[in-house]
Amino acid sequence: MQPIEIIVIVAAVAFVALVVIGAIVRKKKGKSSCGCDCASCGGCSACRERAEKKK
Predict the structure, then answer these.
(1) CB neighbours of 39 closer than 8 A, spacing ≥ 6?
(2) Rounded-to-integer distance, Cα 51 and Cα 10, Å
(3) pTM for the complete prediction?
(4) Would you say 38 and 47 are in contact if contact means Cβ atoms under 8 Å apart?
(5) What does each of the 55 residues of the chain score in pLDDT, given as a tens digit?
(6) How far is the C-alpha of 44 from the C-alpha of 39, rounded, in Å?
(7) What is the spatial distance between Cα 1 and Cα 17, in angstroms, rounded to a whole number?
(8) Which of 8, 17, 31, 53 could be joined to 26 by an S-S link, Cβ 3.0–4.6 Å?
């Protein structure tokens, strides 16, 4: 395995780890997992369920 291949693999693993950590942090803050404000989105069942629980 060449050094460039190792660098690419490490970078890919780091990117995936950052995405997972970001999702965990957003979840702990109580934000939606889809990453956007979709309160007006009729197709987002995750946000709809959360809004119904707040009422």
Answers:
(1) 47, 51
(2) 39
(3) 0.57
(4) yes
(5) 899 999 999 999 999 999 999 888 888 887 666 656 555 555 566 655 555 555 5
(6) 8
(7) 23
(8) 31
